Amino acid sequence: MISTCNQLSNNSLISVKEPKRKVQFIIDNKSKLAINKVTVDGCLIDSNTSLKCDYLFEILDGSTIIKVLYIELKGKDLTHAILQLEATIKYCLQYHNSHNRECHVVSTAVPKASTKSTTLKKEFRRKNHIQLFIDTMQKTVII
Q1: CA-wise closest residue to 60 among 106, 107, 27
Q2: N or C: which end of the chain has fewer CB within 10 A?
Q3: pTM of full prediction above 0.85
Q4: pLDDT in tens, the chain (143 residues)
Q5: What is the 3-state secondary structure (H, E, C) of 2-42?
Q6: Which of 139, 83, 85, 70 is nearest to 108 (CA)?
Q7: 5: number of CA atoms within 13 Å, CB side?
Q8: Domain extents for the chain?
Q9: How far is CA 80 from each of CA 116, 131, 134, rounded to the nearest angstrom?
């Protein structure tokens, strides 16, 4: 996905955070692959009325996308976070439909084993055919 909202990097650590809520998503890029960070909210989807997640990352092997990570940094509203992820997936469908995709919500307060989060993850997978991960405060993904 080429746009002015991209930042291509092969740094060993790539992170995004929401300072107000102190939630953070980190990619530990042990493989030193090229990673395209796309700022979705306020750039790729620059609308106050559209739902959208905060970021997405395209993991590249050469010029081929091998995985896409959709990221939502959130307070407590998991249901709204999921709607934001789904809207972004739909918006990016023409670019990412055939790729391996994951969605991550990093929230200020979500019990990891709560019934609600387990149900939301199962329903999200059934509906979107994409795995959803829900974590509290910080999530690190190793590539």
Answers
A1: 27
A2: N
A3: yes
A4: 667 899 999 999 999 998 788 899 999 999 999 999 999 998 999 888 889 999 999 999 999 999 999 999 998 888 999 999 999 999 998 989 889 999 999 999 865 566 878 888 999 999 999 999 999 999 999 99
A5: CCCCEEEECCCEEEEEECCCCEEEEEECCCCCEEEEEECEC
A6: 139
A7: 15
A8: 6-142
A9: 13, 17, 13
